[in-house]
Structures are given as C-alpha cells and as structure tokens.
Write a structure and sequence with these properties.
alpha+beta, Peroxisomal Thiolase, Chain A, domain 1, 4-stranded mixed β-sheet, 11 helices, 15 strands
Length: 349
C-alpha cells in the first residue's frame, strides 16, 4: 500500500505486470540458551542415544525467562530486512502457533518494533506448515496489489507449550525464528517461487493438538484436565501422515513448476525429526547430498523450521545461487504444503 496526497492508503500500481513472488532477503535467529541431550537426561527417563536415534537431535535452543515469540520474530525479521536491497515493506505476515497472547495478534507488535508502523500485519496458524501457508498468503497480497513487498516470518516458542515431563515431545521441540523478504517480480527470475501446493484434513486434528485454552474447553465452564494445556501428539499416526502428505505435495509442486524430481538440487523439508526427513527424502529419491538439514543442532522449531533452515544453509553456502530448491512441510490441522524456487543471489546482511 502507498499513501496518496491526502494521506489515504491506495493500492500499489505497477507499471509492468509483476505478479510473481520473489525471495529478496532471508534471516534466521535462535535464542542463545542451549539444551543438550544430557541436560534432558538429567530430568527425563531417557538417554542421549535414545534421543539421537529416534529424532536425530543433539541440541536445541530455548528462550530465556521473560522472552516471547515476538522477540524471536523481531530478530529474524531484522536480519531478513538487513539482507534485502529494498527494505520498504508493505505487509508483515507472522506464522506461529505460540503467539505472545491469545489476543491481539503478535505480528503488529513485531512490525512496530521493526519500524513498520501503519502497514497491515497479522498472524496465521497452520502449526509446522505455517511458513508455506504464509508463503501463499504473501503471494496473494503481492498479486492483488496490496503490497509490493512482504516480510514473512515463521516463529515459535514451542517450549512454552510442551510438557517438560513428556519425553515424547520435550526432546523434539525447540524455539527459533526465520524470515524472508518477498517482492513482486517475474516468474522467470532467480528467487521466484513456483505454485504453492497446500492441503488440510481436519478429520485428524486429534493427532496434533493443545486440547485446552480454546473456546471449546472454555465454553464447558470447567478447568482443563491433566496435561490438556500442553501440546500433544500421537507419534505413530503422525509419522505416517507426515510422510504421505509431504511426499504427495512435493510431487505436485515439482510437477506444477514444470520440474522433475531429478531437477531438485536442494530439498528443504520441515525439520520434524530425522526419521520423517529420511523417509520423505527416500520416497522422493532425493540424493543424500541434496538434503538440507539443521535438526541435529536446533530441533523442531515449528513454523520457523523452513525459513531458519534456508537462512542457515545460505549462510554456510550449502544453499547457493542457482540451486533449484523444493520446500515441504506438515503440521497440525492436519495441514501440509510444498513449493519450489530457484535460490537467488542475495545481498550480504
């Protein structure tokens, strides 16, 4: 949006037909506090070997007392803006499952802290698939002329909703944020995002949920039951659904982009756990050297997972200019998605 001479907001007018969404900046951040497997073993009935063999995780980053999702999102957003040539942002979209408060949304606070007062800013919730849902949302804002550039952030402080005594989830989830600057551009230029494939199936909402805290529990005029305030996941069925949905969405996205799976140079999947990542990549026959991963260092960071992975991979050069990249994610809802892009040359932050 832009301001006219009378101070009213007017839709962006393009001299050329620029309707593709192009990655123009990237940034990621994890809080400084680190929890190792040995730290968890000191309070849970588990071992370093059990955690590593089942999840692939060795360390994870957690927020310190008093820190919130907005702090993670602000830092990742700041870094993404710093890596972009043009930092004039027309909208801020925040994908998160752990907003600072149930009301209001967290995105306006983050936007204000970044100096983006007055621009539209809102949250979206698709759990671990949130970044891909946000990617489609940002593309819509750009295509409609609402914004020429969008700051899309994925941020989660999952340790605030995980039961610290639950071995099945406490060893997996962590905190972090990743962000991208997206601009209007041409479909044939580096950084252009291909068609975003999305799906959902609410019949399986019970597989990944926080039962308490919403209108259904509150309308019953009763306190939540034991553990209902915490994140819950049915691991075995979630595994099967994740592999099936991400594999199918990935094939659809690649086909929609006019690629084949053999064209994929880098595979950036939601870092759920190492076994899921391996199963999906094997199903798609992605070579081992083409699979990006940071799960051993940062764990499962929810909606932050993909943009944080992209930021870290770009920083260490495992993701470089020209790499044809396939993104895919799966989360509660159930919700899932996939998209393609050719990685661009980005300015140094």
């Amino acid at each position: 949006m832009t301001l006219d001479q009378g101070g009213s907001y007017m839709p962006v007018r393009y001299e050329e037909r620029e309707r593709a969404v192009v990655v123009a900046g990237v940034g990621g951040w994890v809080p400084p506090d680190v929890v190792t497997n040995d730290d968890l073993c000191a309070r849970l009935d588990t071992s370093d070997e059990w955690i590593r063999t089942r999840t692939g995780i060795r360390t994870r980053h957690v927020i310190s007392p008093g820190m919130a999702t907005s702090d993670l999102a602000f830092e990742a957003g700041r870094r993404a803006l710093g890596s972009a040539d043009d930092r004039e942002i027309g909208a801020v979209v925040l994908a998160t499952t752990t907003p600072d408060r149930p009301c209001p949304a967290t995105a306006p606070d983050v936007a204000a802290r970044l100096g983006l007062v007055g621009v539209p800013a809102f949250d979206i919730s698709a759990v671990c698939a949130g970044f891909l849902y946000g990617l489609a949302t940002a593309a819509g804002l750009i295509a409609s002329g609402t914004a020429r550039q969008v700051l899309l952030i994925g941020a989660d402080a999952f340790t605030t909703i995980v039961d610290p005594k639950d071995r099945s989830t406490a060893v997996i989830f962590a905190d972090g944020a990743g962000a991208v600057v997206l601009r209007a551009g041409r479909a044939d230029e580096p950084g252009a995002v291909g068609p975003v494939v999305l799906g959902s199936d609410g019949r399986f909402a019970h597989l990944i949920q926080v039962p308490a805290g919403g209108s259904r529990q509150r309308s019953r005029s009763r306190s939540c039951g034991p553990g209902e305030e915490f994140f819950q996941m049915e691991g075995r069925d979630t595994f099967r659904q994740a592999v099936e949905r991400m594999s199918a969405a990935s094939r659809h996205a690649v086909e929609s982009a006019g690629w084949s799976l053999e064209d994929v140079d880098r595979f950036a999947a939601h870092q759920a756990n190492a076994r899921i990542l391996e199963a999906v990549a094997d199903e798609l026959a992605i070579p081992a050297g083409h699979r990006l991963s940071n799960i051993s260092r940062v764990g499962n960071t929810g909606a932050a997972s993909i943009p944080l992975l992209l930021a870290q991979a770009a920083e260490d050069s495992s993701l470089a200019e020209g790499h044809r990249t396939l993104l895919t994610a799966f989360g509660g809802g159930l919700a899932w998605g996939a998209a393609t892009l050719t990685w661009p040359k980005l300015p140094t932050a």
